Description:
By secondary structure, this protein is of the alpha+beta class. It folds into 2 domains: 2-52, no CATH class; 58-167, Alpha-Beta Plaits, CATH 3.30.70. It has 4 helices and 8 strands, in the order ββββαβαββαβα. It is elongated. The termini are far apart.
Amino acid sequence: MVFNESGAKYNQNTYNMSQQGRFQNHGNDFVFLYFIAAVKCIICYNRFMERIIEPIKLTYYMVFVTRYKRTVFNDKESAELVKSALLNTQEKGFLEVKSLEMGECYVNLICDCDPSKSPNQIVSILKRASYQALLKKIPHLNSIWARDIILRTFPISENELKSFLMTIKRRG
């Protein structure tokens, strides 16, 4: 061990500057510094990848219409049952409901979905959940939803919604 003028200890063999201006390594100091640099690179890479790789979610705009335009949702209790059933599908983890609007005979839904599920699977899950919730209140209900739906990845205008609702036939 060598002491400098102020009395502090320092290791004389760590790095010596040669005449060419390069560091000469003595001992395992270079291996330790290389290890530290590698760990810092790995940490920076992981932080970079966390920012880039985010879970992919697809946004779907959906409109479901009741069969024969039955006014099922004018009853407040029925509307709340369907709303809660549609919002409870979020708990499965592949669906996040952003917006839910209900008319007398339709449901307008905006949701973010996991790409592992196809749009047909998502629609069938949502329709089944809402049908089972309504079946508890109205046991004689055979089916509630029409086969026609709007399913898009871009917003639905009000004019398109009105024209879609006009295409659905009423019974009788």
